[in-house]
C-alpha cells in the first residue's frame, strides 16, 4: 500500500512539473524549437530566421546504425557535415517489428526535411486517429480513452501518432543518405581524444579484426542500451549491463493476423481501435494495429530476469491471463508458438550527475537514456536528440567550441529526456503495482462483504478513473510540447486519408490468405506473411511483405 501511495505521489509531482507546458499546448501556444534558441559557448546564438547549415564541415563519426544513429547521420549530412555511420551488423536485413513515431518526433523529422517526412508517410500507419486507451482486462469494458492523443495533435496542427516497420524506416533513411556514409561490419570499440582536439577510433569487425581511423572532430555514441561508448566514457567495467538495471518486467510479444470475424473484433473492428491496454491484477496486456491487417500484442509480466525456461510461451501467457477477456485469448490462440519472442526490459536512471558529453565525444538515444516502451518514446527521444545536436553543431565556427557545444546539448536534453524516462517507468510500475480490476458500487451492493474487488488497488483504480483524462492531457501535452514544425490541417488529413486507403487495401489482400485450420501471421524476422497449419504444424510462405503490399496498392 505504501509503495502504491509513493508511486501516485511521484506521478502527481510529474504532473505538476509538466502542467505549465501542457497548458501552453492546450491553449494553442505552440512551443517551437526555433523559439527556444539559447546562447551556447563563446556567445554564439542560433539563427532562427535563415536555414541552419554547418558553418564548418566537421568530420563526425557515429557509432551505431539504429534509428537514432541513422537519423543523426542523415541530419548531419543534410546540413553539410562530413559524417560516417559505423554499424556492427554485417549488413542491413529486412527484419524487425514496428516502431512508434509520435507527433513530437514527426514534427522534428518534418522540420529537418519535408522530403524525408513525405517518404516516411508512404509506409506510415496512423493509430492516433482511432480509439485508443485502457480497458478492464476482466470485464472487457473501456476504462479510460486516450482522447488527449488525438485532440492535442489537432489543437497544435501536428500529425497524429502512428507506427512504421523498422525495416521500412531503415530503407527510407538509407535511400536518403549518400552512398558510402554507412559502413557495415564495423563497430567502434574504443576512442582516444587527442590534445589537438581530434578523436581517433578503433573499429572492429565480427572476425575480430581491428583498425584505427584518425582525425574525427566529433564522435557520437548511438550504439544502443549496451553502449561501448558509454562504457568507456563513464569507466564502466563492461557495457552489459553497465549502469543499466533490470526494470523488473519481462515482455512477451508477437504479430498475428486476426480473422475479421474473430471475437477480438466483436466490439471494435480493425480500423476502429488503434491500441488497447488491458489492465488487471499485477500484469497487463497490450494490442495495437500495426498496419497491413496485422495486430501486434505484448504482455508485461513482473518476473525475475532470465525467466525463460518453459515448454510453451503461448500456454504460459494464457495461464497468466486466465479469466481475462476473450479478446486477449483470441490473440493468443491465433499465435503460433515459434513466433513468440520474450525479452527482459532494462532501462537506467537519468544521468544527472554524469554528463553525456566529454570533450569531443557525446551520446544519444538508448546509449544514455533507455526507457520502458509504454509511451513509445524511445525512438522519438533519440530523434529529438539528433535534431537538437545537429542544430547546435551548425553554429560551430571553430573547433575549440565543440566541447562547450556538446555540453550545451547535454543541458538542453537532460531535463526533458529524464521526465520522459520517469513517465515511461512510472506508467509500468503504477499499472502493475497499483492498478487492478476496478471496484464497482453496483457489484459491491449485490455481493456485500464477500466482494472480491473490495481491495485497496481496486478501489484506487476506481477513483483514478476520474483523474486519468487530466493526467493523460498533462502527459501527452508534455510529450508533444517539443514540436519545431506544424502542419496545415488539410495536409494532415491528406496523409491520414492516404494511409487509411493504403492500409485498407493491404488488409483486404492479407485477409484473402486466411483459411480454416490455419493461422496467418507475420514474421518480423523475414518480413513476410506466413501460414501455420494447426493440424500438420507445417509453416509455409504466403508472400514477403513488400510484394504483398505492392500487389494491394497497385489496385488503388
Describe this structure in words.
With 556 residues, this protein is α+β, with helices and mostly antiparallel strands. Among the domains are: 2-126 and 147-244 and 348-423, FAD/NAD(P)-binding domain (3-Layer(bba) Sandwich); 489-553, no CATH class. The chain is built from 15 helices and 21 strands. The protein has helices spanning 2-26, 67-78, 103-112, 114-121, 147-155, 166-176, 228-233, 313-320, 326-333, 378-393, 402-433, 441-447, 456-479, 489-511, 545-553; strands at 59-63, 82-86, 98-101, 125-126, 131-136, 142-145, 162-165, 182-183, 187-193, 199-204, 210-216, 218-221, 245-257, 273-280, 283-289, 294-301, 341-347, 361-363, 518-523, 528-533, 539-544. α2 links the parallel β1 (59-63) and β2. α1 (2-26) packs parallel to α13. It starts with a helix and ends with a helix. Mean pLDDT is 89; it is low at 1-10 and 15-50.
Helix/strand layout:
Layout: H1 2-26, E1 59-63, H2 67-78, E2 82-86, E3 98-101, H3 103-112, H4 114-121, E4 125-126, E5 131-136, E6 142-145, H5 147-155, E7 162-165, H6 166-176, E8 182-183, E9 187-193, E10 199-204, E11 210-216, E12 218-221, H7 228-233, E13 245-257, E14 273-280, E15 283-289, E16 294-301, H8 313-320, H9 326-333, E17 341-347, E18 361-363, H10 378-393, H11 402-433, H12 441-447, H13 456-479, H14 489-511, E19 518-523, E20 528-533, E21 539-544, H15 545-553
Parallel strand pairs: 1-2, 1-12, 2-8, 5-14, 12-18
Antiparallel strand pairs: 3-7, 4-7, 5-6, 9-10, 10-11, 13-16, 13-17, 14-15, 15-16, 19-20, 20-21
Amino acid at each position: 500500500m505504501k509503495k502504491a501511495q509513493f508511486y501516485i505521489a511521484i506521478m502527481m509531482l510529474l504532473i505538476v512539473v509538466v502542467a505549465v507546458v501542457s497548458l501552453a499546448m492546450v491553449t494553442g501556444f505552440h512551443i517551437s524549437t526555433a523559439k527556444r534558441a539559447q546562447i551556447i559557448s563563446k556567445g554564439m546564438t542560433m539563427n532562427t530566421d535563415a536555414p541552419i547549415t554547418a558553418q564548418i564541415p566537421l568530420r563526425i563519426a557515429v557509432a551505431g546504425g539504429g534509428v537514432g544513429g541513422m537519423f543523426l547521420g542523415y541530419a548531419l549530412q543534410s546540413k553539410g557535415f562530413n559524417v560516417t555511420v559505423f554499424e556492427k551488423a554485417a549488413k542491413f536485413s529486412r527484419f524487425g517489428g514496428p516502431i512508434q513515431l509520435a507527433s513530437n518526433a514527426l514534427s522534428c523529422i518534418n522540420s529537418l526535411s519535408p522530403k524525408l517526412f513525405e517518404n516516411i508517410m508512404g509506409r506510415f500507419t496512423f493509430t492516433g486517429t482511432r480509439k485508443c486507451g485502457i480497458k478492464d482486462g476482466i470485464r472487457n469494458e473501456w476504462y479510460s480513452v486516450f482522447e488527449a492523443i488525438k485532440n492535442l495533435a489537432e489543437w497544435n496542427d501536428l500529425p497524429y501518432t502512428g507506427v512504421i516497420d523498422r525495416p521500412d524506416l531503415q530503407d527510407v533513411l538509407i535511400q536518403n543518405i549518400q552512398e558510402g556514409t554507412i559502413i557495415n561490419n564495423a563497430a567502434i570499440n574504443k576512442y582516444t581524444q587527442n590534445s589537438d582536439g581530434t578523436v581517433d577510433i578503433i573499429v572492429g569487425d565480427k572476425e575480430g579484426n581491428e583498425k584505427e581511423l584518425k582525425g574525427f572532430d566529433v564522435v557520437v555514441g548511438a550504439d544502443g542500451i549496451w553502449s561501448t561508448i558509454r562504457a568507456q566514457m563513464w569507466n564502466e567495467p563492461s557495457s552489459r549491463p553497465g549502469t543499466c538495471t533490470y526494470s523488473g518486467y519481462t515482455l512477451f510479444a508477437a504479430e498475428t493476423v486476426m480473422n475479421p470475424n474473430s471475437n477480438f473484433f466483436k466490439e471494435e473492428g480493425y480500423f476502429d481501435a488503434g491500441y488497447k491496454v488491458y489492465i488487471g491484477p499485477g500484469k497487463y496486456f497490450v494490442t495495437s494495429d500495426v498496419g497491413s491487417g496485422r495486430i501486434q500484442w505484448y504482455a508485461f509480466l513482473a518476473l525475475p530476469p532470465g525467466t525463460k525456461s518453459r515448454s510453451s510461451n503461448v500456454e504460459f501467457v494464457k495461464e497468466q491471463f486466465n479469466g481475462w477477456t476473450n479478446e486477449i485469448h483470441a490473440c493468443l490462440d491465433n499465435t503460433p508458438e515459434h513466433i513468440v519472442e520474450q525479452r527482459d526490459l532494462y532501462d537506467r536512471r537519468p544521468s544527472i550527475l554524469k554528463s553525456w558529453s566529454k570533450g569531443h565525444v557525446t551520446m544519444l538515444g538508448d546509449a544514455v537514456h533507455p526507457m520502458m516502451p509504454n509511451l513509445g518514446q524511445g525512438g522519438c527521444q533519440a530523434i529529438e536528440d539528433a535534431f537538437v545536436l545537429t542544430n547546435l553543431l551548425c553554429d560551430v565556427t571553430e573547433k575549440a567550441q565543440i566541447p562547450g557545444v556538446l555540453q550545451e546539448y547535454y543541458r538542453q536534453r537532460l531535463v526533458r529526456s529524464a521526465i520522459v524516462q520517469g513517465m515511461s517507468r512510472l506508467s509500468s510500475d503504477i499499472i502493475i503495482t497499483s492498478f487492478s480490476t476496478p471496484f464497482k458500487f453496483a457489484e459491491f451492493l449485490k455481493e456485500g462483504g464477500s466482494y472480491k474487488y473490495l481491495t485497496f488497488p481496486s478501489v484506487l483504480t476506481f477513483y483514478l478513473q476520474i483523474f486519468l483524462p487530466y493526467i493523460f492531457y498533462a502527459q501527452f501535452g508534455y510529450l508533444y510540447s517539443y514540436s519545431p514544425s506544424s502542419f496545415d490541417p488539410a495536409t494532415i488529413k491528406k496523409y491520414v486519408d492516404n494511409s487509411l486507403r493504403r492500409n485498407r487495401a493491404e488488409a483486404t489482400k492479407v485477409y484473402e490468405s486466411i483459411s480454416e485450420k490455419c493461422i496467418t501471421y507475420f514474421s518480423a524476422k523475414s518480413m513476410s506473411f506466413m501460414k501455420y497449419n494447426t493440424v500438420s504444424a507445417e509453416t509455409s510462405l504466403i508472400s514477403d511483405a513488400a510484394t504483398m503490399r505492392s500487389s494491394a496498392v497497385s489496385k488503388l
